[in-house]
Specification:
Helices cover about 75% and strands about 0% of the residues. The protein is mostly helical. The protein has one domain: ABC transporter involved in vitamin B12 uptake, BtuC (Orthogonal Bundle), CATH 1.10.3470.10. The longest helix is centred in the N-terminal third of the chain and has 35 residues. The chain is globular.
């Protein structure tokens, strides 16, 4: 599976560099990468497509990692990166900035501030004098998400008409501004490394808190660390690409349905699958209706829903 997903990851990035509104052959792509021959192909690949392809892969990997961690934390297979209200806070912040006509930097800063605010609210209401309850965490996140969703709708209703289309585009996922993915890759690499270090503890806590404690796991610090890591991954992904759905929910499910349950393998495989899927979806989003671009969230749903139903249909 590692070999297959490594080849899939490589193929998805090459496809992202090849396809687009300006057609570039595989030979030209390879020549540009290996030899660095200057010209139109070089400019299109390195200035436009490569940053976006790497941003899409990092964003998909972060969403898959966040979902994997939250499914461990909540012991709920339906947990995804947006269940704790982090995406709602980031979306509200970004839409408020867009409604005021702010630029990309201000929008990203506002989205980050909104996500941090949501994290503080959820954590503050969940952790009380040493008491940590995952059920209270889930309920708080769901309630906060509902409230933020109402505020997002209100923002869309009151926003200037000229800004509404861009706001809706961001809500459905937009990687067109992901031209600096280095910070996202750093966060992804650091969180993956930490997840692999505690992979055995992640396996044990899925058995239940009492069994994990009896086997020597410090449950509350581990749960708080999982929450912090999942929140950081979600914030980074949302700031980079907007609210992109389904990638995080599908990737760990697909790997588990293939028979992988130990997190030492599950985490990197889910990250590779999530990154590949979002890279392919983003390539389709900017190619199918070229030169007009579609929101990548629509493509992830159109590709992911049939694939997930097919995987579930093959299981007993």
């Amino acid at each position: 599976m590692f070999a297959v997903l490594a080849m899939t990851s490589f193929a998805s990035v090459i496809a992202a560099l090849t396809f687009g509104s300006v057609p570039i052959g595989i030979g030209n792509v390879v020549e540009t990468i290996v030899l660095g021959t200057p010209g139109l192909s070089h400019d299109v690949i390195w200035n436009l497509r490569a940053p976006r392809a790497f941003a899409a892969y990092a964003c998909g990997g972060l969403l898959a990692l966040a979902s994997t961690l939250l499914q461990v934390l909540l012991r709920n297979a339906l947990a995804d990166p947006y269940v704790l209200g982090v995406s709602g806070g980031a979306s509200l912040g970004a839409l408020l900035a867009l409604s005021l006509g702010a630029g990309v930097a201000v929008m990203n800063a506002s989205a980050f501030a909104g996500a941090i605010g949501a994290i503080v609210v959820v954590f503050g209401l969940t952790y009380r004098a040493g008491d940590w309850n995952v059920y209270r965490l889930l309920l708080t996140g769901v309630v906060l998400s509902a409230g933020l969703s109402a505020m997002i709708s209100l923002t869309l209703v009151l926003a200037p008409e000229a800004q509404v289309k861009g706001m809706l585009f961001w809500l459905m996922g937009d990687l067109s501004q992901g031209d600096a993915p280095l910070s996202a890759w750093i966060v992804l690499g650091a969180l993956m490394a930490l997840s692999l270090v505690v992979s055995l503890q992640l396996d044990l806590i899925t058995l239940g808190e009492l069994k994990a404690r009896s086997l020597g796991v410090a449950v509350i610090p581990l749960q708080m660390g999982i929450f912090a890591a999942a929140a950081l991954a979600t914030v980074t992904a949302v700031v980079l690409g907007g609210a992109i759905g389904f990638i995080g929910l599908m990737s760990p499910h697909a790997i588990r349905l293939a028979g992988v349950t130990h997190h030492r393998a599950l985490v990197p495989l889910a990250v590779m699958l999530g990154g590949s899927l979002l890279t392919i979806a983003d390539t389709a989003a900017r190619t199918v209706w070229a030169p007009q671009q579609l929101p990548v969230g629509i493509v992830t749903a159109l590709l992911g829903v049939p694939a997930m139903l097919l995987l579930l249909g093959k299981q007993r």
